[in-house]
Amino acid sequence: MTFAPTRRTLLAASGAALLASPSRADTPAWTRAAYMEAMAKSGRPVDLSEAQFQAIQKRKPAAMKLIESYLTSHLGSADPAVLAAFQAVPREYYHYQYDNKRATPGDAYEENPKPWALGYGSALSDYLGQAYMTQVLAPKPEHVTLEIGTGSGFQSSLLSRMVKTSYSIEIIEPLGRAVGKIYEPLGYDNVHTRVGDGYFGWPEVEGGFDRIIITCAAQYAPPELFKQLKPGGKALIPIGQPFKRGQFLYVYTKDEDGKIHSKKDVGVFFIPMTGKMMKTAAPTTTAAASE
Fold this sequence. Notes:
Rossmann fold; disordered N terminus
């Protein structure tokens, strides 16, 4: 995307705040050995020297400062919980090209954020866009979240550090099956993924979702997702035509009476949401009313 397991305590990048989350275990120090072991356990071979690993780590503080500055500039302030999650999740672990089985950790924390190819037509979104959407989504420790478009697994991992349970659906089978193996090696035991069409959501999850985020461009808001959104919940959905400019992020909220309200946010550019979305015309009446 681009823009126009018990208890875990995360230290915010600014050093000014702590996020206590109820369902995660403390994570060992992130070292080259830990990275190599996690990559091996996830079935993704990599060859990375200690010097190369340390060079990646040295770039992270600058990326964190850029995220904080970006959120402050665009949203008035940077949520310490968002910064803490970005500090906690090792982004280099998610840089991988799945179609040719090649790790690309050296691309992480780039100075000029951009999307990176994952293979199979999918991409790892730029980290500023992910930070923006995460803060707008406003996930809380007690929340259950649903992501449509697992991709690299970074967004679902980020949410898992902030919420009770993180669910994610990927429609591309080889990508979804491979990415489904990356969470356990990091101890992220509150993430649940599956291969399927996100148009239908995950109706088997009892009680629905407090937050829903779509990380691909829909042509309209899928009605089934609103049914699974809890009263008081929020959904972020990029809407626009595939591979064209003019896509916008829409923020949907569901009031206590079950009515959906929508607000047009920033311009975005995402790969398209496929599956039923590409085969079914928009409903004659949508579940969205403008604020």
